[in-house]
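Q: Here's a chain of 174 amino acids. Please give me its 3D structure as tokens.
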Amino acid sequence: DTARVSRGRAQVSANMTRDLVQRLFAEIVVPHLDDAYGLARWLTGNPSDAEDVVQDACMKALAALKTAGVRNGRAWLLTIVRNTALTRLARRRGERLVTPDDLEDAAGADPDPSPEEKLIARIDATQLTHAIAALPLTFRETLVMREMNDLSYREIAEATGVPVGTVMSRLARA
């Protein structure tokens, strides 16, 4: 009987841990999946690779939630995404890292822009995409984290493992 009771307690404990981890994942990771995909997309330059990076990062985050003391879920997840993307890119050295695609027309624009306005917006978006893609990876990731993911300098420093001054320097150079 004591063995059966012990197994029962262990099962209850495992279920409680699993439920807690699932709840933490929903609270900490899920709200930031769009930002995670955006960063992965910019780092890999490929929607399919970005999806793979985010999936791998989510699996790593799920495994780490049991022991991690997460203060800032967004910065924590983006750090995992960054490291996962860089690891993936390191395995593929020699391949071109970024192949920029045209950005969709800017959201929130005039509902009926003229053909000329559409053309100008498309050219601007393409030029911006090419300019960002041409940056070295360290500058590109810092710029994307700041301008597209709206992370603070401190959050970027934590995510990249460099001092805040280096973050500021990389942004100025980018």
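Q: Can you summarize the key feature?
A: The radius of gyration is 20 Å.
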